[in-house]
Amino acid sequence: MTPAQLSEALRAALVHAVDDGTFALDAAAIPATVHLERPRQREHGDWATNVAMQLAKKAGTNPRAFAEELARRLGDTPGVASVDVAGPGFLNIRLDAAAAGELARSIVEQGVDYGHGDALAGVRLNLEFVSANPTGPLHIGGVRWAAVGDSLARVLEAAGADVTREYYFNDHGAQIDRFARSLVARALGQAAPEDGYGGSYITDIAEQVVADALAAGEPDPRSLPLDEATEAFRARGVDLMFAEIKQSLHDFGVDFDVYFHEDTLHESGAVERAVERLRQGGHVFEQDGAVWLRTTDFGDDKDRVVIKSDGEGAYISGDIAYYLDKRERGFDRVVIMLGADHHGYIGRMMAVCAAFGDTPHVNLEILIGQLVNLVKDGEPVRMSKRAGTVLTIEDLVDAVGVDAARYSLARSSADSSIDLDLDLLASAKNENPVYYVQYAHARTVNVGRNAADAGVRKEDGFDASLLDHESESVLLGRLAELPRVINQAAELREPHRVARYLEELAGSYHKWYDQRRVTPWGDEEVTDVHRTRLWLNDATRQVLANGLGLLGVSAPERM
After folding, report:
1. Which of 95, 292, 416, 483 has the fewest Cβ atoms surrounding its Cβ within 10 A?
2. Residue pair 317/306 in contact by the 8 Å Cβ criterion
3. Per-chain mean pLDDT for the chain
4. Strand arrangement, sheet containing 304-307
5. Rounded-to-integer distance, Cα 82 and Cα 66, Å
6. Of 267, 334, 279, whose CA–CA distance to 306 is shortest?
7. How many H helices and E strands in the chain?
């Protein structure tokens, strides 16, 4: 019996009790899904629910009496061994071994689909993440968003959402101007501008711009008048830098469905159309020659200039047009992932969302990520060999590899700062979380190989009642939690929950492995005990692979 089946049995018992008049409860109050959780103390049973405490008051009775009636009805359900009422009205449910063990076969049969659900079915969601300016290599903060964002996209898709991964390509504004001037200065052998960019990558790109121009039979951009030279280095330099960022992300296992160029908002008239839409809603006013958006009507701390007195769009103008563009492309929800220095951005953008008639924190969500610090030999790693001032995606991948980098960045809540110990992440130790989980998967594969050599075949038999050892009950309980973990991770936008779950699952598997054998000893005859345990082993392998896949991390067969 799966948790979903048990939840449905509970709901059916509630419906019957309402239909026969036992519970004076409006049927509409019965939840579509009765929430189950694993008891903290294993001896309390396999599953617990507080549904009686949620509904008793509405039914005009006390929670314990409600729970006792529900327990009586549920106790007749096939596969339920016992139902106990605890405390003020908790239900503790224990399944019989056969019912619990059936999950192993169900998982193997479902394969890669196990754990997936439809909680977000029909939701079109635009997830924007990374969106680093093309003025240098992707720095470590952007790398964190790459790992977390791509993992979140996978989790949301597993929960049924239609997700579009989007990268906002900032090719407009002062930072691009500084980048272009830095390239020109480096190409001419001059010192970088005071507000410019350093690092050896500037030399690499400047040299490539010159080489590409000469190879194409074009004039040497260094010989052009300064304005023309700056434009030449800007156009080609931005393309080269962004191509490098895209390649770095691809090598990191992250690709985007849409690369949206900021320039198009200004060139297409999207900014003007968005301002006009807000004007028609009565949210725009003019003052001191500038056009303002009255965001204080929607909770912002001050009104915002949208079009400056010189006719140029203020920074927020592009954000306004971009949000409207996403909604007009048919996205129900817009989720934007931003760095730690963007907290002040939330209030104004939620005001923009409301001004367009949308619901803040529903149609628009903004997630803020915190800093990443790298540590090696017990000391902070502060400088990049190539970028000079910031640590890059290449620095991290070179030190620990893609799998360890992605896993370690995705396993902690994005709103907390983290320190990554490069020595630990590169080690083959159980203290290294990615190694611990990947090793568990490799061990399941090795068990399967040994079983095949010993003549143990799943196809020859399965008796769920034979999975009656405590370690098997614990492992089955862990396996049953994946659908709930995925739904919760999707709902809360917290993919790190998947990583923490995998570590718990790996621990339960390793303990089971130490206590139960899949292959027979010596000349011992192969029986359904071995075959059934192989089903459980392979179910664990599938769940570990599914979970690692949600994090974009490989599931190795040998380590």
Report:
1. 416
2. yes
3. 93
4. 284-287, 290-293, 304-307
5. 17
6. 279
7. 20, 14
Contacts of residue 282, defined as CB under 8 A and 6 or more positions apart, other chains included, come to none
Cα separation, 393 vs 137, whole angstroms: 8
- Please give the DSSP secondary-structure letter assigned to residue 388: S
Nearest to 496 by CA among 435, 544, 547, 427: 547
**Most distant CA atoms of the chain, gap in Å:** 93
Cα dist. 507→259, 369, 441, 482, 513 in Å? Answer: 41, 29, 11, 15, 10
Residue 216 token pair:
């194409």
Q: Measuring CA to CA, how many Å separate 67 from each of 17, 56, 75, 92?
A: 12, 8, 12, 10
Parallel/antiparallel/unpaired status of strands 124-128 and 333-338: parallel
31 vs 402: CA distance, rounded Å: 42
Closest CA to 532 of 555, 509, 516: 516
Q: Could you tell me the two tokens for 228?
A: 């023309």
DSSP three-state, residue 300: coil
- Res 385: pLDDT: 63
Cα–Cα distance, 485 to 495 (Å, whole number)? 9
What is the residue whose two structure tokens read 């075949």?
Answer: 457
Residues 402, 251 contacting (CB under 8 angstroms): yes
Q: Assess contact for 244 and 387: CB atoms under 8 A.
A: no
75-89 residue pLDDT tens: 889 989 999 999 999
What tokens were used for 146? 């790459």
Give CA–CA dist 508/75, Å, rounded. Answer: 28
> How many angstroms separate the CA atoms of 403 and 31, rounded?
40
Residue-wise pLDDT tens digits, 197-249: 888 899 999 999 999 999 999 999 999 999 999 999 999 999 999 999 999 99
Task: Tell me if 157 sits within 8 A of 172, measured CB to CB.
Answer: no
| Measured distance CA(559)–CA(555) in Å, rounded | 10
Report H helices in 329-410: 343-355, 393-400, 402-410
Radius of gyration of the chain (CA): 29
Assign 172 a pLDDT band (cuts: 50, 70, 90). low
d(CA 155, CA 494) in angstroms, rounded, equals 9
Q: Which tokens sit at 50?
A: 């507080």
Rounded-to-integer distance, Cα 337 and Cα 92, Å: 40
* C-alpha to C-alpha distance for 556 and 445, rounded to whole angstroms: 9
| Pairing verdict, β 372-376 and 124-128 | unpaired
SS3 298: helix
Distance of CA 313 to the CA centre of its chain: 34
The pLDDT of 1-19, averaged and rounded, is 90
